[in-house]
Structures are given as C-alpha cells and as structure tokens.
Amino acid sequence: MNRPLIRPLILGLTGSIGMGKSTVAAMFAEAGVPVFDADAEVHRLQGPGGALVPAIEAGFPGSTGPQGVKRAELGATVFADPAALARLEAIVHPAVQAARADFLVAHADAPLVVFDIPLLFEKDLLHEVDKVAVVSAPADVQAARVLARPGMTAEKLAAIRARQMPDAEKRARAHFVIATGTSLEETRRQVARLVEKLRAGLASGHAETEQA
Ligand SMILES: CC(C)(COP(=O)(O)OP(=O)(O)OC[C@H]1O[C@@H](n2cnc3c(N)ncnc32)[C@H](O)[C@@H]1O)[C@@H](O)C(=O)NCCC(=O)NCCS
Ligand SMILES: Nc1ncnc2c1ncn2[C@@H]1O[C@H](COP(=O)(O)OP(=O)(O)OP(=O)(O)O)[C@@H](O)[C@H]1O
Fold it and tell me: Per CATH, is 1-34+110-212 categorized as 3.30.1490.190?
C-alpha cells in the first residue's frame, strides 16, 4: 500500500463476533482518534449506487438490485463455496485497501489512527497495521451478546465462529488485549490508557502482549 513518508501510527482493531469491537471503535473515536471502519466501507461500496455493484453483478449475476448487493443472498452463495468467496474477495478487498490508503492520506497529520478490521488475522492483513489490539470477552458473554440479536441462532453463531480464528489465538498474537467482559466504563478507561500510551510513543517496537 502507498503510504505517505510521515504517517500516523496505525493500530489495527479486531476481535471475534460479539466481542465489542464496534463499541470499542466508537470509544477510540470519542477519544479523538480517526477510525477507519472496514465493514462500513464494504457496506458503502456494495450499497445503492456503490462503486462495486457493477463488478459484483458481473461476477455474480442476479446478486444485486436497486438496493445494491443483496448481501444475505450473496452470503448464502459464497459462504457455501470457497472458490466463489475468493472471487468476491478479489473484487472487494482491493477497493477496501484503496479506501484505507485514502483515509491515511486524509489523516496524515494525526499521531494515531485505528483500522477497524474484523478479519485482520483471518485475511492476513497484519502488514496493513503497526500494532494490533484485540477486543475480547469470555465465550459465554460473547454468546449471550450474539444470541440476543434478532434472527441469530446457535447454529449461525457456530458457523461464524468456525470461520473465525479462535479468540485465544487472536489474543496470543495481539500486542494489546482490550477486555470487554467488564463494565463499559472499565473498557473506556482501558481505551483511554492505550491511546495515551500510543500517542506518547511509549509503545515499544516489540510484539509484546499486554493488557491495554
Ligand atoms: C458475502 C457478504 C456480502 C455477506 O454479507 P452479510 O451482511 O450477509 O454478512 P456479514 O458481512 O455480516 O458476515 C457474516 C460473518 O461472515 C464472516 N465473513 C464475512 N466476510 C468473510 C470473508 N471474506 N471470509 C470469511 N468470513 C467472512 C464474518 O465473520 C462475519 O461475522 C459480505 O460478507 C462480503 O461482501 N464479504 C466479502 C468482503 C469481506 O471480506 N468482508 C470482510 C470485511 S473486510
Ligand atoms: N465493556 C464492554 N465493552 C464493549 N461492549 C460491551 C461492554 N459491555 C457490554 N457491551 C455490549 O456488548 C455489545 C457488543 O456489540 P458490538 O456491536 O460492539 O460487538 P462487535 O464485536 O462489533 O460485534 P460484531 O463483530 O458482531 O459486529 C454491545 O451491545 C455493547 O453495549
């Protein structure tokens, strides 16, 4: 990716389904840190009039309509067929990467930015970031949060978990772990401490694992 010579420190934020990544990303934004939301970007690119709609229609005829990509239908196709998923990713990922590069240029003066990337580890995107923070909560808390969502079932959750790297492995690979099984206030304090530390340039260059 083309980066400006002087650029912000890039903190990759990731975590498995229901771990609280979106909530924590909002806490970084509240603390004044620019946040790039990969999922939101994909939704924009695939939404009504989205830049990727024609290419996705060409690759997957019938998968789009006036509202852009019919995500649930396309998901049913590609999640059952790894070759189809790879074809979709080959359309989507370069566009997201370009949007990230633009975001970095737009925030070149910030000391710190966050790239919120749900599948950071799974899609091998470590080279896009300088440090990685993983949001994590106990498995029972994760399951309770996800199963409370409309339309979610234990079977769907199991299928999604099977496509994601286990939480313990993510934590082992992270530079920082942000615990979200606690109160929102405690998590907000962890985020504030981490922001302060990274902004101050105190984070060592080592791949240490620590609580934020
Ligand atoms: C296939 C699509 C349209 C389905 O959309 P839908 O809203 O139904 O599902 P959603 O995006 O919420 O994904 C559901 C779950 O599937 C998993 N998942 C999504 N994309 C991928 C992928 N490329 N590889 C593996 N798992 C994936 C995630 O763990 C997620 O929790 C959409 O997921 C998509 O366009 N994926 C390809 C782009 C991509 O890689 N996105 C990930 C963020 S960059
Ligand atoms: N300490 C905490 N930190 C973060 N979230 C918390 C905390 N305590 C409770 N929650 C709740 O847990 C839920 C987490 O949902 P959120 O959408 O942030 O997760 P996510 O990991 O982004 O999910 P997904 O990957 O499925 O999009 C929210 O309803 C949030 O209010």
Answer: no
